[in-house]
C-alpha cells in the first residue's frame, strides 16, 4: 500500500475519506472547545498528513495553546504534515517520522487532553485494537477525549470498540451513524490515568489491504 497516494482521496469531496475527515475535525473542534482553560496537549498515532488536527488548529481560537505530536512512518506524509503545520503558523505542532506504535513516542506528553486514533483501528488485528484501547488509559488524561475511526465492514467491530472503551472508564460522547462506511467516535476518559509503560509496542500495523485478505 502506498500510504502517500492513499491520501489523494481526501481531495475528492465525494469520497468516504473526505466525509470521515469532516466528522473527525468536527469532533476535534468540540474537544478543544470543551477542554479546560490553559495549555493543551494532543497526540496523533499514525497521523498521515496531519489533516485531522492541523486542519482544525489552523483557524481555532486555542491554536496557540496546543502542543501536539503527530507520529507517522511514511516520510512523504511526514513532510506534507510538517509543511502544513508551518504554513498554518503552528509551531506547537511537532511531526515525528517514526513508529507510532511505541509508547516512548508519547512519554513526555501523556496523559494528553486529546488522543487521535484515526486510520489506525482498521489496520490492526482485533486483539491489537483492544490492546491499544487499553493503552489509552495511559495516553489520555482524566476528562480528555479519544477520537477514533473504524470501517464498518462485516464483522462490524464498532460496537465492541465502544464496549472496550466503556469498560475502561471512557464515556461515550458521540458515534457516527451506522449507515456510514467509516465510523467516527469520541469518548471522554472519566478514570484516573495510569503510568504509560516505557519501551512497549502497543500494536502491529498490518494494513487493511492485508487484513481483509486473511
Automatic annotation (TrEMBL):
Residues 45-144 form the Methyltransferase domain. Keywords: Methyltransferase, Transferase. One of its GO terms (molecular function) is methyltransferase activity. It comes from the Bacteria. One of its GO terms (biological process) is methylation. CDD domains: AdoMet_MTases (cd02440). The keyword Ribosomal protein does not apply. This is Methyltransferase domain-containing protein. It comes from Streptomyces hokutonensis.
Amino acid at each position: 500500500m502506498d500510504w502517500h497516494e492513499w491520501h489523494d482521496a481526501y481531495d475528492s469531496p465525494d469520497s468516504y475519506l473526505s466525509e470521515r475527515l469532516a466528522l473527525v475535525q468536527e469532533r476535534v473542534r468540540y474537544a478543544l472547545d470543551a477542554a479546560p482553560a490553559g495549555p493543551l496537549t494532543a497526540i496523533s498515532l499514525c497521523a498521515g498528513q496531519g489533516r485531522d488536527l492541523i486542519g482544525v488548529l489552523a483557524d481555532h481560537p486555542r491554536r496557540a495553546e496546543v502542543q501536539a505530536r503527530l507520529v507517522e512512518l511514511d516520510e512523504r506524509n511526514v513532510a506534507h504534515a510538517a509543511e502544513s503545520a508551518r504554513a498554518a503558523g503552528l509551531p506547537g505542532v511537532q511531526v515525528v517520522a517514526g513508529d507510532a506504535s511505541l509508547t516512548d513516542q508519547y512519554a513526555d506528553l501523556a496523559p494528553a487532553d486529546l488522543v487521535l486514533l484515526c486510520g489506525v483501528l482498521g489496520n490492526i488485528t482485533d486483539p491489537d485494537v483492544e490492546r491499544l484501547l487499553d493503552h489509552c488509559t495511559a495516553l489520555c488524561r482524566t476528562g480528555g477525549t479519544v477520537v477514533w475511526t473504524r470501517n464498518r465492514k462485516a464483522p462490524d467491530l464498532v460496537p465492541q470498540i465502544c464496549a472496550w472503551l466503556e469498560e475502561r472508564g471512557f464515556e461515550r460522547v458521540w458515534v457516527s451513524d451506522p449507515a456510514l462506511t467509516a465510523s467516527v467516535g469520541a469518548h471522554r476518559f472519566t478514570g484516573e490515568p495510569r503510568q504509560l509503560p516505557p519501551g512497549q509496542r502497543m500494536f502491529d500495523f498490518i494494513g487493511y489491504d492485508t487484513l481483509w485478505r486473511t
